[in-house]
From TrEMBL:
InterPro entries: Adenine_glyco, DNA-3mA_glycosylase, DNA_glycosylase. It comes from the Bacteria. One of its GO terms (biological process) is base-excision repair. GO terms for molecular function: DNA-3-methyladenine glycosylase activity; metal ion binding. This is DNA-3-methyladenine glycosylase 1. Zn(2+) binds at C14, H27, H181, C185. It is an enzyme of class 3 (hydrolase). Keywords: Glycosidase, Hydrolase, Metal-binding, Zinc. The gene is tag_2. The keyword Cell inner membrane does not apply. Its EC number is 3.2.2.20.
Length: 202
């Protein structure tokens, strides 16, 4: 069973928040709460892709820089990026300067446009992969799931890049498709309540 981290306020949080104080507000106010905004969903896919091989602490610390560099992750704008934009991004010291990942964001922006045309919204598509049965494992012990494997497979089929099953699982955790807060974490009940009130996009 996961051992919780007791934060400075004396209340238990998921163990991963112990890494840095910056994680606590992100954990308490964002992680696991359901999201149906296409821009936020696209941003998270991109940031999770950038995280591959790195720590989430690095990406979270640079998140505002990423947003400034990528036009707030408006995929309709990013889809128009050209070689000049790639060169600009590769010289931006505020972000992770990985050419493959930068080019993947541009590629995925075009894929996102096609997906919206087909499914109506990114939210409608992503929420199709919400698990229909509760996880049997203690939260945070898994790194993939049948749903994340299926999501990654479908995205790759549609041409998306840097979207493997582990990346998709982390995306699903963060965007509220699953509630992976530990069972004694103080935020788990708030996330559960938010998920109950959430209207699943169609």
């Amino acid at each position: 069973m996961t051992t919780d981290f007791i934060a400075p306020d004396g209340k238990p949080r998921c163990q991963w928040t112990s890494v840095t104080p910056d994680f606590v507000p992100y954990h308490d106010n964002e992680w696991g709460f359901p999201v149906d905004d296409d821009i936020r969903l696209f941003e998270k896919v991109c940031l999770e892709s950038f995280q591959s091989g790195l720590s989430w602490r690095t990406i979270l610390n640079k998140r505002d820089n990423f947003r400034a560099a990528f036009d707030g992750f408006d995929f309709n704008k990013i889809a128009t990026y050209d070689r000049k934009d790639i060169k600009r991004l590769l010289t931006d010291t505020g972000i992770v300067r990985h050419q493959g990942k930068i080019e993947a964001v541009i590629n995925n922006a075009k894929c996102a446009q096609a997906l919206v045309a087909e499914a109506g919204s990114l939210a409608a598509f992503f929420w199709r992969f919400e698990p229909t049965t509760p996880a049997t494992e203690e939260p945070l012990t898994a790194s993939t799931s049948p749903e994340s494997i299926a999501l990654a497979k479908q995205l790759k089929k549609m041409g998306w890049k840097f979207v493997g099953p582990t990346t998709c699982y982390a995306f699903m955790q963060a965007m509220g498709l699953i509630n992976d807060h530990s069972h004694t974490c103080i935020t788990r009940a708030r996330v559960a309540a938010a998920r109950q009130q959430f209207e699943k996009p169609t």
